[in-house]
Amino acid sequence: MPKMIHSKYGYEPPEYVKADAELEKWLKGRKQMQAIVYTKPGCMKCRQTVRQLSKAMHTKAVTATADDIKALKAGGVQSMPAVYIFEGSKPIDYWSDLRVDKIKQYTEG
What we know:
The chain has four helices and six strands; from the N terminus they run ββαβαβαββα. By secondary structure, the chain is an alpha+beta fold.
């Protein structure tokens, strides 16, 4: 008989406990906030935005290609960086340029 482990559900086989832990980790990760920040080389505002948002959430900096910049401009972006905030896979916020007020909303809130 395999050794049973006490969990929040009672006594279970180790493989059940491991599966529960992996499922909880996966579900938690789906709800976490994350940011994608489109940047351009040498942009101080871009670096500052990425650095500050990284303190509060997983932040991915993407150096925008010429095609990216063309698409962002067509979408109304007039200044870099372009920031997209997601909760799991759901987009919840967007802005462009250095927006200290928006960054504080996520780093201090």
